[in-house]
UniProtKB/TrEMBL annotation:
InterPro entries hit by this protein: HMG_CoA_Rdtase (IPR002202), HMG_CoA_Rdtase_bac-typ (IPR004553), HMG_CoA_Rdtase_cat_sf (IPR023074), HMG_CoA_Rdtase_CS (IPR023076), HMG_CoA_Rdtase_NAD(P)-bd_sf (IPR009023), HMG_CoA_Rdtase_sub-bd_dom_sf (IPR009029)
Enzyme class (EC, first level): oxidoreductase
Biological processes per GO annotation: coenzyme A metabolic process
Organism placement in taxonomy: Bacteria, Pseudomonadati, Pseudomonadota, Alphaproteobacteria, Rhodospirillales
PANTHER family in the record: 3-HYDROXY-3-METHYLGLUTARYL-COENZYME A REDUCTASE
GO MF entries: hydroxymethylglutaryl-CoA reductase (NADH) activity; hydroxymethylglutaryl-CoA reductase (NADPH) activity
Short name of one Pfam family: HMG-CoA_red
Family the UniProt entry places it in: Belongs to the HMG-CoA reductase family.
Catalytic activity: (R)-mevalonate + 2 NAD(+) + CoA = (3S)-3-hydroxy-3-methylglutaryl-CoA + 2 NADH + 2 H(+)
The protein's name: 3-hydroxy-3-methylglutaryl coenzyme A reductase
UniProt keyword terms in alphabetical order: NAD, Oxidoreductase
Length: 431
């Protein structure tokens, strides 16, 4: 909370802020914002993340932000039962996965596959006199390119990864032709951003020399379409509530496939599940989200990442395919103890397995959202937890939260003003 004593002479130009300790930084921030002692203490309580580690993961640390970690049950993937750790602040996300998984469990659950663990790094060259001839010159240097890339990362090589291929594209851009070299690299159990960025930077001077052009950007593409995770499940009619539900779900998919306004929300629901597992395992949510949305727009029109159709014997068949650049080492995956615990809960021992599990979670999430939308509507399932949030916003504490929430749900009016009135009645203060 900010207090009325917010420092009026506050100045955001703070010299040497990054060199201070987290406690010193927090004191500066508390003074700047007029934080009361309780708020400052809450920030500095980093829970299950060591403050020293937090200070090494990102810059200018003052504390940590805890997000609930829920476990989705009922998941069976490729014949194996799994418990799925999900880090999310949004209500109903964990429950949605449990429900979807329960309804296809007896039919075998999910099957999954992966196209590989290949990442793409891009090197941009401009001012190339003869871009099509330069393209061939680069392609002719494949062996040298492989040697430069593999020389960057002997550890990756020792784990079976490394350079796999080179592609060169001539792009028509607003600034004229642009030569874009793609390095295709197997990054195995690493997400691979640092690994391939290093290779692109090491190779860049050679590209400049071979093309006679000027090299600017050297970085991975988050459109990781050589790293596609896929999952599939069949939901029997008797589990989902009959033909009308099945047809409603298929129609909801058709809507998303035909309309970007709907597809954005459809895919947001998928990412509710995907991002929660990506975050729980210490992976880069933004990288996965960027890849997913770019992939959803690959035809030129933004569309659905999932498909729903009817099997030959009339059951509901759902499938998903999306880029899934996640790792088990690198970034926060290895360093963050909670991420390590989540990986242990999942029992995954390869980045590929993790990616496949996440794809299945995305499909499960989407099934539940579409089923709710096509039948009772999304708000009914959301109401119980939403009512608790509203009760807390109205000032309810302890037992009051459940009591106020129950009355809101019973009345069918989950609003803060109503919650305040109900709370007032409960406390005998008249609201
Ligand atoms: P990293 O560089 O920390 O670790 C990867 C390295 O670990 C490999 O290069 C290899 O040398 C070594 N390694 C050890 N065991 C391995 C195994 N079994 N398989 C593969 N490699 C093994 O991490 P990274 O995965 O290259 O990069 C991930 C980080 O990069 C994330 O934190 C991400 O947020 C960040 N990042 C993302 C972007 C982006 O998405 N646009 C850009 C820059 C950085």
């Amino acid at each position: 909370m900010t207090s009325p004593t917010r420092n009026p002479a506050r100045n955001s130009r703070i010299s040497g802020f990054h060199k201070k300790s987290p406690a010193e930084r927090l004191a500066i921030v508390a003074d700047f914002a007029g934080l009361d002692a309780a708020s400052a203490a809450r920030l500095s309580d980093t829970g299950n993340l060591d403050l020293g580690l937090a200070d090494r993961l990102v810059e200018n640390v003052v504390g940590s932000m805890n997000i609930p970690l829920g476990i989705a049950t009922n998941m069976k993937i490729d014949g194996e039962d799994l418990l799925i750790p999900m880090a999310t602040e949004e209500s109903s996300v964990v429950a949605a996965v449990c429900n979807a998984a329960r309804q296809c469990y007896d039919a075998g659950g999910f099957t999954s596959s992966m196209s590989g663990t290949l990442m793409i790094a891009q090197i941009q060259a401009v001012e190339v006199a003869d871009p099509h001839a330069a393209r061939l010159r680069i392609l002719g240097r494949r062996d040298e390119i492989k040697a430069v890339c593999d020389g960057c990362d002997p550890v990756l090589l020792s784990f079976g990864g490394g350079f796999r291929d080179v592609e060169v594209r001539v792009l028509d851009s607003q600034g004229g032709p642009m030569l874009v070299t793609h390095l295709i690299v197997d990054t195995r159990d690493a997400m691979g951003a640092n690994a391939v960025n290093s290779m692109a930077e090491r190779l860049a001077p050679h590209i400049a020399e071979w093309t006679g052009g000027r090299v600017y950007l050297r970085i991975l593409s988050n459109l990781a379409d050589r790293r596609l995770a896929r999952a599939h499940a069949v939901w029997p009619l008797d589990q989902i509530g009959g033909e009308a539900v099945r047809d409603g779900i298929v129609s909801a998919y058709h809507f998303a496939a035909a309309d970007p306004y709907r597809a954005a929300t459809h895919n947001k629901g998928i990412m509710n599940g995907v991002s929660a597992v990506v975050l729980a395992t210490g992976n880069d949510t933004r990288a996965v989200e960027a890849g997913a949305h770019a992939y959803a727009a690959r035809s030129g029109q933004y569309g659905s990442l999932t498909r729903f159709e009817v099997t030959a014997d009339g059951q509901l068949s759902g499938s998903i395919e999306l880029p899934m650049a996640v790792g088990l080492i690198g970034g926060a995956t290895k360093a963050h103890p909670t991420a390590q615990a989540c990986l242990a809960i999942l029992g995954v021992t390869s980045a590929e397995r993790l990616a496949r599990v996440i794809a299945a979670v995305g499909l499960a999430q989407n099934f539940s959202a579409l089923k709710a939308l096509a039948t009772t509507g999304i708000q009914k399932g959301h109401m119980a937890l939403h009512a608790q949030n509203i009760a807390m916003m109205a000032g309810a504490v302890g037992d009051e939260i459940d009591r106020v929430a129950a009355i809101l749900v019973e009345r069918g009016t989950v609003r803060q003003d109503v919650a305040q009135a109900v709370l007032g009645d409960l406390r005998g203060t008249g609201g």
